[in-house]
Fold:
Amino acid sequence: MDIRRPTCALAVLLVFCLTELAQCMNAKINFREKEKQILDQILGPGRYDARIRPSGINGTDGPAVVNINLFVRSITTISDIKMEYSVQLTFREQWLDERLKFNNLGGRLKYLTLTEANRVWMPDLFFSNEKEGHFHNIIMPNVYIRIFPNGNVLYSIRISLTLSCPMNLKLYPLDKQTCSLRMASYGWTTDDLVFLWKEGDPVQVVKNLHLPRFTLEKFLTDYCNSKTNTGEYSCLKVDLLFKREFSYYLIQIYIPCCMLVIVSWVSFWLDQGAVPARVSLGVTTLLTMATQSSGINASLPPVSYTKAIDVWTGVCLTFVFGALLEFALVNYASRSDMHRENLKKTRREMEAAASMDAASDLLDTDSNATFAMKPLMRAGDSKMRQCEIHITSKPKNCCRLWMSKFPTRSKRIDVISRITFPLVFALFNLAYWSTYLFRDEDEEK
Structure:
């Protein structure tokens, strides 16, 4: 009898039974229950102490290394007067804690998830330039902790912050501002804790980021370790470079100011006798320009230096005020011309009266004497004509010839102002825009 055949059958049956048993066992395993058991095992009393920091790299006694990355969800406001900005971001920290290693059940457990940050050790990071901040708790707290089988810990939280941003407004509104986000350790020195930017892409920004008056040009990551009396502390920073949108200020400030200056020049073309019209036009444009300047400064902090917008509004206000002073000068010159004309008229009347008296005296003299004087008078008249011809033969200056068309001084002042004011304002615009638009990048910094 061959005993090999029953032995093979028995082996096949045994393998089949073991396979079925394994499948039954896998089908009955509750991995959520396994997660609870693993969490109780690694975080149970006496097994893990959240007060003790993790060891260094490769289990050494060096500092714990925490890798950080950010995702900027939105930047809501950038305030010039308060010199601050508000940002909402997803903040992530990742470090290795070998005390949290666990069995992943053959790859079935990728990670464990916690929602209580106080169960494990956490880095004591804080935002050094923060003014206000809050967590998001709708509908549940927007925070989680993932523990991986090799002991890696990932901490992620969504927060909103209001951060200080010291600004240099010398070039306002043609300026660029750099706002920083600084993160540092509060109690652990670099001997115990070191922050590093995550390799690859440490800072991410949402694609459809929209700011009302600024454009985010670029951002830079850097380190900013600080030394104090208590030691050296690890620090990270992100520099956000914002460029101010100029189109808003061009429409709201620059063009209206130009229009007010041009309107003030209308008084140069009005008649000198239209005193109410010219005065009301000058005063109205002056008050409007002053209101415009005060409204601009109300939205800015009271800094001690001169801003680019101050130069513009100050010069525009000067031009409007100069147009009002020009009318005062014209009015004074007009009254002076009238007084001079009255004096000339009186002098002509007196000369006419004197000539009539002389003529009557000549009529009373002898006729022979009169005829004897005529040749002398003719000779004098010929000499006077020669002098007049000699004088008129000299070439006249073009400007004097043109100004001679306007006999009164008041009219000449108006005509000169019509040319001088626009020319000087055009030269100012050329110098202003050349200075602020084509400035050197080093000067901005």
Summary: Confidence is low (pLDDT under 50) at residues 368-380, 388-393.
